[in-house]
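Example record

One chain of 461 residues, shown exactly as stored in the release files.
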Amino acid sequence: MHVKRIGRLRVWLASVVAVAAVLATSLVVAAQAEPQLRIQAQVLSSGRIEVALQQRLDGGEWSDRLLPTRRFLPPSAPVDRWVQSTPLEVQTAAGTVEMRITARRPTGGGRIEVGLQQRRPDGSWSEAILPALRVVPAGAPVGRWLASSPLHEPVFREQATAADGAAVESEAAADKTAVQSDGADLPGLPRALLTPTGVPVAVIGSAGGNYLVRTPCGNAAEVSSGDPIDGMRVVLDPGHGGPFEVGAVGPNGLAEDELNLTLSRAILAELARRGIPTATTRTGDYGTLLSVRAALADAVGADALISLHHNGPTQTLGASPGTEVYVQSTDDATPRSDSARLGGLLYEEITTSLSMFADVSWSRLPDAGVLRVLSPYGGDAYGMIARPAIPAVLVEYGYLSNASEAELFATDDYIAIAAVATANAIEDYLNTDRPGSGFIEQPRRFDPAGAPSRCAEVRLE
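Predicted C-alpha cells for this chain:
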C-alpha cells in the first residue's frame, strides 16, 4: 500500500575531505561544450566518507570518478569546520583550472555539506560554490556512491572570479578560514530574499553589487534588489507546482499544486494574525526543485518546515479522515523527537477539525497517522523529510483522488478550517510542550518514483 509519488529521493548529496598536501591530478575531458561538475561521495563501513569529482559535457556521459589524493573525512572530524581536498586540475572551456572539494559536518544530525572551490588567477581560492543538492543525511547507505546536483561551468566560473583584487591568501591561511556557505554566514547579506516578482530565494553570495541567489530550478542568478526574509519561525512548503509537477488531480479537475498553494496562503494569513513570522517556498504556479525548497528552509533558519500535500490514489472508504503526517528519523529505528511532536500536533488538530464534515466519505489506509516512511536503501524516503536540517513534516490532509473529498477540498469552508487547524498545531508546537497524538510505531517501507527532472525558470525581477 503506497502513497502517491512525491519527489526524487535517490540522489542525495554528500561528502567530505581532509586538508592535505598540494598534489594535483588531471581530468581529461573534451570541452567543445559547456561542461558540468558534480561531487560524489560514499560512506565506508569504517564511518569515513570518501569523495570524488565528475565532469561531463552537456548531454553527455559523466566521466569516471576523479579521486583526490587525500579524499577521506574521518568519523571524528570537527563539527562546523570546513576542510578541503587536495586540488584537482580540471579542463574547462576556459582552459585548465584548479578546483578542490570543501566540506563540513554541520551541527546536529550527522549530516555533511559539500561544495567546490576554484583557484583564482591571483592564487586565492573562491568562496564555496554550492550545488543545490549538497547534503547527505544521517543513515546514508554504506558503500553506495551518492551524487550532488550538477554545477554548470558558467556558474562556478563567474563566482570564482567575482572577487577581483582580493588579497592573495597563503595556503595555510586558507586552510584555517571557514568557507562561507550561505546568506546566514555572509556579512551584510540576508539569508533569503523575496525578489521583485515575489519569488522567495536563498542568498548564496554577492556579485558586482547584486545578490547572488539560488533560483527555483537550482541555478545561480543575480538580482539587484529584494525584500529580506529574516526572523522567520516557520516555513510552509506548498507541494508540487509548475507545468511538470501538478501532483494529484481530483475527479472535479482540482489540481493538487493549486490546492496546496491556496491552502498555504490561508495558513500564512492565519499565522500572521497570530504574530508568527512565516515564509513560504513557493508563491505562484511555478516549479521548484525539492532540494531548493529544503535548502531555502534551512537558509531561513526557521523552527519548523511543513510541506502541504493532498493524497492519491483512493484507498478504502470510511467515516474517519485518512490524514497522514510523515516525520523525520534520527536513524532507521528512531523518529526525530521534535519532528514527531510537530507531526502529532498537526494530525490531532487536522483530523479533529475535518471530522466535523459529516457528509464526507473519507479515503484511509489502515496505518494512517503520524508515521515514518523509510526507503529500501535506508533513511527517510521523501525528499522534503530527508533533506532539511530543521525539524520538518509532510502533511497529506486527505485524498484529492477521492470524489467525495475533492468536492470538499474545492470549498472555502475546507480551506478556512484546515488553515486554522494547521495554525493551531504550529502555535502549540512553538509555545507549549503538548505532545500530540496519532503515532504509528511501525514505519512504512516505500521507494518513491523520481519526480520530473524538467524545471522551467521564472522571472526574478
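Notes: The chain has a mean pLDDT of 81.
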